[in-house]
Amino acid sequence: MFNFNLKTAPIFQAVKWAKHPAQNHTRFLESFFFVAFIIFFLLFLFGFLTNTLDKISLSRLLGPSILTLILTIFLKLLSSFFNLKLAKPGLDFNLKSVAKNPANFNLAGCLSFPSAKAVFESIKWSRSMKILEVDSGSLFYYLLKDNSELGFIFFRAGLDFNQIKKGLKENLREIAFRTSKSLAGTQSEYEPIFAENFQNSVLEALKIGSNKNHRRIEMGDIISGLAKFDPVFKKILIQNKLKAADIEKLTLWLESLKERIQAKKKWWEYKNLIKKGSLGREWAAGYTLTLDKYSIDWSRIMRERGFPETVGHLEETKIVERILSRREINNVLLVGEPGTGRKSIINAISSRSALGESLAEVNYKRIVELDLPLLVSQLENREEIEAVLNTIFQEVVSAGNIILVINEFHDFVSGKERPGVVDISGIISSFLPFPQFQIIAVTSYQGLHQDIERRPTILSLFEKVEVPEISEEETMIILENLVPLIERKYRIFVLFPAVRDIVSLSAKYLPALPFPKKAMDIFDEVAVQVCSLKRKVVTEEDVVKIISEKTQIPIGKMEVREREILLNLEQLIHQRIINQDLAVKEVSSALRRARAEVFERKKPMGTFLFLGPTGVGKTETAKALAEIYFGEVSKIIRLDMSEFQQIKDISRLIGSAKEDGYLTTKIREDPFSLVLLDEIEKAHPNLLNLFLSVLDEGYLTDGLGRTVNFKNTIIISTSNAGYQIILEALARETEWSLVKKTLLDYLFEKGIFRPEFINRFDGVIVFNPLTKENLLDIVGLQLQKLKEGLLKKDIEFIITNPLKEKIVQLSYNPQFGAREMKRVIQDKIENVLAKALLGGEIKRGDRIEINPLTFQVVRV
Amino acid sequence: MGQNILFQYLTWHYVDQVRGILLAWKNFLRFNLNYFSISLLLKTLFSHWRKYQWSYGRGFDIKRYAEVFFSNLISRVIGAIIRFFLILIGVVAEIIIVLAGIIVFLGWLLLPVLLLAGLWFGFKLLF
Description:
heterodimer; A: 860 residues; alpha/beta; 6-stranded mixed beta sheet; globular; B: 127 residues; mainly alpha; 80% helix; elongated; membrane (chain B); transmembrane (chain B); transmembrane helix (chain B)
């Protein structure tokens, strides 16, 4: 039941008062009386100070001054009372409890004032038009009409706010025309009935509001609800390639902006006052003259920047603070890939410490980054550098209020020296055990494994904190915060779809780089590009263009192309593969199932196990798929698994501190690849376990602890294990559907593969041995390639049936399938043709045949 | 619906807003103590100025001992004098905030009366 009665809700009182004509003019009158007060008072002051007016005239001026001031204050009081009290009546429930059981609450009582006002107006309109059902269309119109701030959502989405309002007005007219006769006769008491789309919109708004921990259903929540259920809004979104989720994200953006402005306005709040800093706090700490010369004071910088909000890594920040508060081992080693926002943790701690929001032991300390490259570049020799470093470290200890930050720490403890880099491991080791000497060292996984782990004494004095990349949602917030800066810098306007696509496309197409850096870099590049083209608006097409250029992948076209490919996959594969109808069909259907993304998928694009004897087209099918799907055969990463039979071979595949991983590096460099694992049964069982997570979750952790994403790969494993079963089955003419079962039973029984491994593939496909007829077709395909080559030299090569039959006769072997054929064609045909071409036996314009008995070139 | 509007106004004026003013007042007092670092300065009143201190070293040499003792004493005295002045300024500012708070607080409580009085006075001057 939809429990919704505006008249009985406490907010109705505010709605009613807002309709009062006096309330409508409060703002104007307030300004008017204030200006009048200023004028009267200035005149009074002038007369009083210059003594040019008599006492009566002065009284006549002072009187109105006081009266206008009183009226200004009175109106200000009234409007404050309205906004702070009437428009926000006390609630004795929260939205979460209402959302759990909406039928038990009057939902109109949960509405914020602007939402309630829009509902009131839409009911009023329906009554005036004699429409029985209050439609979501009227709610949508009145919400937009009276709240110009919602224009932000539409402008950012690239929609014309005024045009939409006009369209909605038009829609209301249509609704009125269509349904105005539904209210029969004249009813003295109009009881509104709410249309289904209205009800659904409000219920959805309630859900959204409760998820956002709102006190009331705000107009942003209603807009988000309408985006899902109002037919006109849905149509607008579809026409403009937008989704309801985009509107929800936009309202979130608008709300966070409003919240920030509101928070800033409350200057009397302690959080705002504390930003002014404090005096004399450093008098108890020593001077750090040398350190100040070679350092960046993040605490000062954050204060100068007005303590900007840092997004993400909240948990890591708290862990770092906890470690810094310890009595022993209070040094932190921040480990993360460059670009994951390691420095934002330093910024967050600097702000929190300066504002006294951190733990007591960290509060009011100075976070200072030692600029080692500057120090090394300014000093001449090693002795001098060591002497200065010694002074700096002593200053840090004696000052007692410094937390030292060393960036790229691994460079300075690696023992290697190069321009800008010096080894400080010796000198720092003697200071690290002091509790007063606190360090946050920043490093990467590679730096940790390659350099720092080689110095266990130093490592033991640090507590490691891993910094993962931030989420897409957090990156979105960072980009939204960047928008005003970018817009001011480049004088452009950034549309929301562009911001959204920067995040989603960089997540998909640049998986090797971490968030937020990759998104921020793309954003900057897109802005520069648009600015250089002298355009004013950044759209999603600009983003697609930049990412396509960066990755060399035709994004956008890809989707259209992929759809065509998927629909015609069987024919496309059969252009290269003879027979294997069942296998091709199975691969195609499995890939279609996987790519249609009926459910959200974390796995690779497709994972297949090809079983069958040698030379039946398993590898060829993989090649065909790579060519069809990724555009070129070179997109195959082929691994001969017989080379990975020992446990030590794993590091060769996934990398270690000493070497790059063959597979992981290639996937990081080019995530859109087909991974072909040939003869998978020969690999070490631990390696198969490693692939379980790839097949299941779509990622692998490499030897350096980095996550490698396989979501954009197709993985094909081939195996000829148990091929005898297939041959026997064929000899006995067993039904084909039984062969697969028998084969799998055999594989499990012999322990070649475990069921959990097999089950993780999207499809296990059994290739059947080739018949002579198939081989004849394959010869035809192979010779056709030769024919095309010769045609370029203006030589016509006629392929005869006897020749094809002879080649099949020479190469046929049920055990090796078509594998021998390539060798026979090379030996008997290609060699002969090459000799004839070089010897001048055949020339341009010739028509030739090859004698199947003698394998001699014959001109015809 | 419809609670008495006058009652609502009185609740807002004399409960909600009074609470708000008291909270803001408390914020200012707390901020002032923090701005002048009064508790820290009191705790470290006699600490060495900027940690300037000298070590007595090993062995006993009366001349050096006296020298170091006086140097350290001077460092502490200088520290104490400067801190004392800042504490003093901080305390004065705190008193000013207390007084300003009282004025604002009473002003708010009496605002309706003041408005009426102002109205009467304004009209009286006018006519």
